[in-house]
Amino acid sequence: MQLNLRTLAPALVVVTLALAGCKTAPTKTSDTTATPQAGQQAATPAAASRVDFYLAKREAGPGLREVNLPDGKLYLQETPVLTRADLTDAAALVDRQGQNFVGLRFSESGARKLTSVSTSNVGSVLALVIDQELVAAPLIGEPLNRGVLAFGVPSAQAASEIAAKIRGDAATPPAGGAAPAPAAKP
Predict the structure, then answer these.
(1) How far apart are CA 97 and CA 21, in angstroms?
(2) Signal peptide position in this chain (predicted)?
(3) What is the CATH number of the domain that holds 65?
(4) Residue 93 phi/psi, 5° resolution?
(5) For residues 149 and 127, what is the distance between their CA atoms, to the nearest angstrom?
(6) Which of 26, 85, 86, 138 could form a disulfide with 14 if both were Cys (CB 3.0 to 4.6 A apart)?
(7) Could you report the average pLDDT of every consecutive run of 10 residues in the chain (186 residues)?
(8) In a domain, 39, yes or no
(9) Whole-number pLDDT of residue 22
(10) Domain annotation covers residue 44
(11) Rounded to an integer, what distance in angstroms lies between the CA atom of residue 22 and that of residue 91?
């Protein structure tokens, strides 16, 4: 599988999402996605993007595949440690200082996986890949045991677009009616 890098932020850091101090940026949610009841997963639209999380290292090793980055290389494990099925929500967030984030909320079983993976891999990278495109690669700085994860992005638009892709929202053209031009890939 060929991965492309989507440059989002010069320094990505895992931040445990503290909802106090963050507000959700306006996003359009799909009318067909119901809020899951306890013990249920959120419905996934048929045309939803593929969302996977991989453990990654900065050094090569057996069973790792190489991804070129502007500032070096990253080596991802072959098998994802978390997937879309482990998520219940994604939202564009802004903190009190005006920094933009994508906040992810995990299901009960996804939260247990996130806690286990992060506890065992402090110092590793947790790479978010959407449709074979590396979107974020934050460092796991501490065990993530709250069932939530946030990572910084450079703009509110980038946060909204990434959150919408993760949720599986259909792309809507801007108010002018024309669809946006596809972003150039490096």
Answers:
(1) 9
(2) 1-20
(3) 3.30.1360.200
(4) -130, 155
(5) 12
(6) 138
(7) 40 34 36 40 60 95 91 94 97 96 97 97 95 92 95 95 90 42 40
(8) no
(9) 37
(10) no
(11) 11
pLDDT of residue 1: 44
Q: Is residue 35 part of a domain?
A: no
Q: Which two tokens stand for residue 27?
A: 């996003």
What's the longest Cα–Cα distance across the chain?
50
Q: Which two tokens stand for residue 147?
A: 């069932």
Sheet containing strand 22-24, edge to edge, reads: 22-24, 87-95, 100-106, 148-153
Q: Does residue 181 fall inside a structural domain?
A: no
Helices (H), the chain: 108-120, 156-167
Residues spanned by the domain of 126: 4-26+50-167
Task: Specify which residues 171 forms β-bridges with.
Answer: none
Q: Give the Cβ contact number of residue 132 at 10 Å.
A: 12
Return the closest-CA partner of residue 14 out of 71, 69, 55, 63.
Answer: 55
The count of domains in the chain is 1
